[in-house]
Write a structure and sequence with these properties.
The complex is a heterodimer.
Chain A (H helix, E strand, L loop, with lengths): L4 E6 L5 H7 L5 H7 L1 E5 L11 E7 L5 H12 L1 E7 L1 H5 L11 H8 L23 E3 L6 H13 L10 H8 L4 H5 L15 H4 L16 H10 L4 H8 L7 H17 L3
Parallel strand pairs in A: 1-2, 1-3, 3-4, 4-5
Helix pairs in contact in A: 11-12
Chain B lengths: L3 E6 L9 E8 L2 E9 L6 H5 L7 H6 L6 H16 L5 H32 L4 H7 L1 H22 L8 E2 L2 E2 L5 H5 L2 H19 L13 E4 L10 E4 L4 E2 L4 H4 E5 L6 E5 L9 H8 L5 H9 L12 H22 L15 E9 L2 E9 L5 E7 L1 H19 L5 H13 L5 H4 L4 E6 L1
Parallel strand pairs in B: 2-14
Antiparallel strand pairs in B: 1-2, 1-14, 2-3, 4-5, 6-7, 7-8, 9-10, 11-12, 12-13
Classes of the chains: A alpha/beta, B alpha+beta.
Chain lengths: ~260, ~425
């Protein structure tokens, strides 16, 4: 029986999520034994013709060319899995979505007219149907392995949607917010990193995006009680998953109150 | 009748990011050589404006998943320069240690999985593993030894979370670091084997006149500190980067091209560091390089794979030294007060010098940012190498010619994700 064909594609991103595949040092050759790496430009010159069984997509859509390219990739694959904060939420480059991209372009490039870009950086699912979204900035390589294996076995991936707090409790970490007043996005951020930042004595900054039914307004009120200004709250919510709905709605609300209340 | 050839590679493989190459030859005369970057721009410098300076190490890391430590190190050193303080003692040593981890991880990835397949005629490291499984397994295990350093000190391999302005959020215990030693001891022997293995490859002839540029420190092989030095007379503090180097924006590329003011192309990366800092390598690394047939200056970019292997050995030895001498610091970071000012940082990413400059407001928010990544600095040199390689190999049929041209680009371990603010290959023969 022929091995399932795997494709990996990149859009606007840092390469880190697809690198996670090559970072599976102990498992890489085993993975290459059960799937055929059919189109993975970062790893191989060889490109086998479509169709593909499973396609991993990293990166966000930011150019007219990429908007067209994702349609073709969708057409060529049975299963489409988006990996990482860029592909699932627009990434850090979605900070442009609140600004005028022409100003950004003129700031970075001497000849902005050479650059072809869209106003917004948006997730893949805004353009094509996606079969599974794997979160993280970067993704967890072990979660990636779980998702790949699940799709190859035809079952649902076992990826938790609870918050980072659950991981902290399971590890026995003292709460950084309660015990040292450190701002932490953990209560509204999806697990997957094994509570990495609190384990290293810092607050979570939201790499895995909002958990299921995240209450960002309530967490922001708590931060306010801890002495944060609206501007600081906006900064904290606008990170690598800034454009995800739960973070965006609350950051917009807080930004509006800066504008109404003046500098606070 | 004219004989036209056009070779084009629209999406270069085994490099980080999206780039292309286009070459046009008419009657055996080279008409055009283009190495372009079509990676979509992400506008980092623009959206850093107004953000707290403390965000810079976390946000700029996201420019590159392969060398996040480089971005974190250049940014924190620039901030500390702006605020007028330096980080010494064990914290400084830990910064060198985490950089050792990144060099090992990134160099071994490139040597084994991205570049060696060119020399041995495989499409990929995975294809290579079918015939050379033990070799590829050795590479993966070495890579992991590097990643283990980054993961311990940084929290994870990609986009580590533990680096901050002033030091770290949490510093490791001596015992935690010592757990790394047995695997690094193994990796040291594996690095010696890697040098011998790569030295045995067949290399296209090249003896090119490069202007090498690298950070240079009086006492140590460079990671984070030192002057910017070239083999053609530059020796200046990092703060004078813009007085000696300039960036130009050209059509066809979403990356800015760097040049030495008044001269032109220059070369950053392993060959440059090695040429400028050879005598600061460990005695074993120096001897291994000489035994592998290298001179203290190597002008053949195809041999960068040997130099990367030598630097891997150095990084492993340096990591072992740091762990051996480590004393736990009293505090994980140096406290400071932000102030208005301008700061500069240049550190040695695996693929070459990475320069950051920030102008800061009084409250520590970022007013302006400039980031000059290594691949943008190498872009003109990569094009000039392509011309040379093309001239030498015009007799080859298109598929073989295309491959050697791609290999020539991969000599630089280009990181296109970094350079964009950069790559697609076309060889056109008319």
């Amino acid at each position: 029986m022929a091995l399932p064909k795997l494709a990996v594609h990149k859009f606007a991103s840092c390469d880190g999520c697809q690198l996670s595949l090559l970072d599976l040092e102990d498992e890489l050759l085993a993975v290459a034994g059960v799937v055929q790496i059919a189109n993975f430009m970062e790893a191989s010159r060889e490109v086998l013709p479509p169709p593909y069984d499973v396609t991993l997509v990293e990166g966000s859509i930011t150019t007219p060319h990429d908007r067209d390219r994702i349609q073709q990739i969708r057409d060529e694959t049975t299963v489409l899995i988006t990996i990482g904060a860029c592909a699932t939420a627009g990434g850090i480059q979605a900070l442009r979505n609140w600004k005028d991209v022409d100003d950004f372009n003129a700031y970075v490039y001497a000849h902005p007219e050479f650059i072809d870009t869209l106003q917004e950086s948006t997730p893949i699912a805004d353009y094509v149907p996606v079969d599974f979204e794997l979160r993280g900035c970067p993704i967890s390589k072990y979660q990636l392995l779980e998702v790949l294996v699940a799709f190859l076995q035809g079952r649902k991936p076992n990826i938790p949607t609870y918050s980072v707090c659950v991981e902290c409790k399971a590890k026995g970490n003292p709460c950084v917010m309660v015990s040292h007043g450190t701002v932490c996005l953990g209560p509204i951020t999806q697990a997957g990193c094994n509570a990495l930042c609190p384990t290293y004595d810092r607050g979570c900054y939201g790499c895995f995006g909002p958990m299921e039914s995240a209450n960002a307004a309530s967490l922001a009120r708590q931060w306010q009680l801890m002495g944060l200004s609206d501007r600081q709250i906006v900064d904290s919510l606008r990170g690598f998953n800034a454009w995800s709905e739960a973070f965006r709605v609350e950051s917009d609300r807080r930004e509006a109150s800066i504008e109404i209340g003046g500098a606070r | 009748m004219t004989n036209a050839r056009e070779i084009s590679v629209e999406y270069l493989a085994r490099v980080e990011g999206e780039g292309s190459m286009r070459v046009k030859v008419v009657d055996d005369q080279i008409e055009d050589v283009e190495f372009s970057i079509f990676e979509p721009p992400r506008f980092f410098e623009a959206f850093l404006r107004g953000r707290p300076h403390t965000d810079a190490p976390d946000i700029t890391a996201r420019i590159c998943g392969i060398c996040p430590i480089a971005y974190q190190m250049s940014s924190v050193h620039a901030m500390e320069d702006a605020f007028g303080f330096t980080v010494g003692g064990s914290l400084r040593e830990l910064r060198r240690l985490i950089y050792c981890g990144e060099w090992i991880e990134s160099h071994v990835l490139h040597v084994y999985l991205l570049h060696a397949p060119d020399f041995l005629g495989y499409e990929s490291g995975i294809h290579m593993a079918a015939d050379h499984r033990e070799v590829v397994e050795r590479g993966l295990r070495m890579k992991k030894a590097g990643n283990d350093i980054v993961a311990l000190l940084g929290g994870r391999e990609i986009h580590p979370i533990n680096v901050r302005v002033g030091g770290f959020y949490r510093t490791p215990t001596k015992k935690e670091l010592q757990a790394l030693v047995p695997e690094l001891e193994w990796a040291k022997d594996a690095a010696l084997e890697t040098i011998n293995w790569t030295a045995g490859f067949t290399f296209p002839e090249a003896d090119l006149d490069f202007e090498f540029v690298s950070v240079c420190h009086p006492d140590e092989y460079p990671f984070n500190e030192g002057n910017i030095v070239s083999n053609k007379g530059i020796d200046v503090p990092v703060s004078q980067f813009n007085e000696f180097f300039t960036e130009e924006h050209v059509e066809r590329s979403n990356a800015l091209h760097s040049r030495v003011r008044g001269r032109g192309a220059y070369h950053v990366g392993p060959l440059a560091r090695y040429a400028i800092n050879f005598e600061k390598l460990t005695p074993l690394a120096q001897q291994s390089a000489l035994d592998a047939g290298l001179e203290p200056v190597c002008n053949n970019p195809f041999k960068s794979i040997i130099v990367r292997s030598v630097e891997t050995l150095y990084a492993i030895e340096e990591a072992l030294r740091i762990i051996d001498e480590y004393e736990e610091p009293a505090e994980p970071y140096v406290s400071y007060t932000p102030k208005a000012g301008v700061g500069h940082g240049a550190t040695e990413a695996p693929r070459g010098m990475l320069y950051h400059q920030y102008r800061l407001h009084e409250d520590g928010r970022i007013a302006d940012a400039q980031i000059t990544p290594p691949t943008a600095q190498n872009q003109l040199t990569i094009e000039s190498d392509l011309r040379f390689v093309l001239e030498q190999h015009l007799d080859l049929p298109d598929p073989e010619l295309t491959w050697v041209l791609e290999q020539s680009i991969r000599n630089y371990d280009p990181c296109i994700s970094c350079a964009t603010h950069f790559l697609d290959l076309t060889v056109e023969r008319v």
